[in-house]
Automatic annotation (TrEMBL):
GO terms for biological process: proton transmembrane transport. This is Cation/H+ exchanger transmembrane domain-containing protein. GO terms for molecular function: antiporter activity. The chain crosses the membrane at residues 12-34, 41-64, 113-136, 156-180, 201-220, 232-263, 337-354, 360-382. It is found in: Cell membrane. It comes from Massilia atriviolacea. Keywords: Antiport, Cell membrane, Ion transport, Membrane, Transmembrane, Transmembrane helix, Transport. It is a multi-pass membrane protein. InterPro entries: Cation/H_exchanger_TM, Na+/solute_symporter_sf. Residues 29-385 form the Cation/H+ exchanger transmembrane domain. It holds the Pfam family Na_H_Exchanger.
């Protein structure tokens, strides 16, 4: 046995080395694609497909499970950035514009629910998947915005919607999970008790965010940290937040988004902070999306019924988002089309709950799981491109500018 091991390349024996090699490959391919005017995130897609379950099989669910804390840390940076881009004061003042963005989130969920039920899924399963489909994928959107250096009214509105959609999806998911668990044959509690448990996880996530942000503010004040030193203090606070949420089964998504919201209202040197953490965030984008692509089973694209459902759901989400924007006169027709396209991407269950504190995906039937797998496969292949196209359509990209 030792002789067999000795004949293997040493880097194949290290799961961390495999992840590192995949990340390196994704960065190299991404730079080549970006030089040709294509989204850099597709480097992570290609690397994931080559090394994942549809390719060499070197990166699979078992290997990725060993680095769940690493992926959770990357997710923490992404979700924090999403929260930092949410402008609650603007959403409140904007009136009809903010209402249109919220309406788009609601319509995406309701439309997906009806369509999935029409394809034969049970109402509970359809509601579970539809709750997930409310959310826009923060990795795809923030990565595309970062790569293209996009800024403007459409990008601003879409960035706010990413945070809103994830919050609404989390609330809807809590309801649907409580329903599914209480109606399971092995259910221990009724719907009311399950709903209370979900609500307590949300409340605990808020409490942890307030605690960790308070510690960050206190540490920065005591140390009189300059803007250039604050990212290190903040990263420590984010890791504390994520760790506490993990061990207490609190809502990490809500907690990390709230951390971003709190910083937005208190940190006055935003540009300095952003410059300090941009590299870590870019690596996080590539790492998370490479993980998603590695788990994509290409054969899901050739199962015609789940794939048809996925295509219709994808198109319906874009169409309903565009429909919700119609009453608002704040954006031109072209900007509205751009916003709808840039919000097309979707998330997985694991991404939405970050640390998997909600165990619920196992409740799906084989048919529902096939539809969700087809949706995620389609999202990996088409989501970044459509989001990138939407930002281009808005005419708000500034590639090549050092400062946007």
């Amino acid at each position: 046995m030792n002789e067999d091991v000795a004949t293997l390349p040493l880097w194949l024996l290290s799961p961390l080395a495999v992840i590192g090699a995949g990340l390196l490959l994704s960065q190299v391919i991404g730079v080549v694609l970006q030089a040709r005017g294509l989204p850099k995130l597709y480097g992570a897609v290609i690397a994931g497909l080559l090394l994942g379950v549809s390719g060499a099989g070197m990166v699979d669910a078992a290997l990725l499970a060993q680095f769940q804390e690493l992926f959770n840390a990357a997710s923490a940076l992404v979700l924090f950035e999403v929260g930092r881009k949410m402008d609650l004061a603007w959403l409140w003042r904007s009136g009809r514009q903010g209402g249109a963005l919220v309406l788009g989130c609601v319509l995406r969920g309701m439309g997906a629910w009806a369509l999935l039920a029409a394809f034969g899924l049970g109402w509970g399963e359809a509601a579970f998947i539809a709750a997930i489909l409310i959310a826009v994928n923060p990795v795809v959107f923030t990565s595309m915005v970062s790569d293209s250096n996009a800024s403007g009214v459409a990008t601003y509105a879409a960035a706010n919607t990413v945070g809103i959609s994830n919050l609404l999806a989390l609330l809807a998911l809590s309801l649907s999970l409580a329903w599914m668990r209480s109606h399971n044959i092995n259910a221990e509690f009724g719907f009311g008790r399950e709903l209370l448990r979900q609500g307590s996880q949300l409340a605990l996530g808020v409490a942890i965010a307030l605690l960790c942000y308070g510690l960050y503010a206190l540490a920065a004040r005591i140390s009189k940290a300059q803007a250039g030193l604050r990212p290190g203090i903040l990263l420590a606070a984010l890791m504390m937040d994520l760790g506490l949420c993990s061990v207490t089964s609190a809502s990490a998504l809500l907690s990390l988004l709230l951390m971003g919201l709190l910083l937005r209202n208190a940190e006055t040197r935003d540009n300095v902070f952003q410059a300090q953490v941009k590299t870590a965030q870019d690596i996080g984008y590539a790492l998370l999306f490479m993980m998603s692509a590695a788990l994509v089973q290409v054969q899901q694209l050739f199962q015609w019924l789940p794939m048809l459902a996925a295509l219709l759901v994808f198109a319906l989400r874009i169409g309903l988002t565009r429909l919700a924007l119609m009453p608002s006169a704040a954006w031109s027709g072209n900007k509205k089309n751009a916003i709808a396209l840039s919000l097309c991407s979707l998330v997985s269950f694991g991404s939405l709950v970050v640390d998997n504190s909600m165990s619920g995906a196992s409740y799906m039937s084989e048919g529902a799981a096939a539809v969700m797998a087809a949706l995620l496969a389609l999202n990996v292949l088409a989501g970044p491109g459509l989001t990138w196209w939407g930002l281009k359509l808005a005419d708000e990209t500034h590639e090549g500018d050092e400062h946007g």
